Amino acid sequence: xxxxxxxxxxxxxxxxxxxxxxxCFSHLKQLGLAFSLYQAxxxxxxxxxxxxxxxxxxxxxxxxxxxxxxxxxxxFGCPAEPFEPEVRSYxxxxxxxxxxxxxxxxxxxxxxxxxxxxxxxxxxxxxxxRLPKGTWNAAARRHQDQTNLLxxxxxxEGFSPPGSGPAWDGPGPFRWRAAPVR
Length: 182
Known about the structure:
Mean pLDDT: 79
Structural class: alpha+beta
Strand content: 5-15%
Number of helices: 3
Distance between the termini: 65 Å
Number of strands: 5
Strand order of the largest sheet: 3-1-2-4-5
Low-confidence stretches: none
Radius of gyration: 17 Å
């Protein structure tokens, strides 16, 4: 019995971890659909990542705007983390809004399939815990040393960042800045 338990316990843990990662991908894909609905209603723009004041609804970040479109506030949290309504474990890529670009029309992104929109965000740091935005240094390695990413075109994929800390040191093979279409 002990030998059987020793063999099955790691397998059970791996299956459970993979199931949690799959639910995380599902949440990201559903949020991607909510982003698409927002774009359809806003003339092709993405919502502001923090609390922009130039397009309605004024003073609302992406998470506040998308709650009604997503239908379930639990979608904003990775299932690997305990759910807390005020904490967003998914973060929107804040490098999409640089300089004077507060609201980004998706048509300006030259590589929607390679540009990160949302990602598994760190909640272990009090400064990052409540923020709905960030970049690769705020990404979490929640799924067997992997982070899950949603791209502007709506597809999601996992990435194993190099290194061993809670976040990785660079952008990886993806775009974080929205290079304009020329």
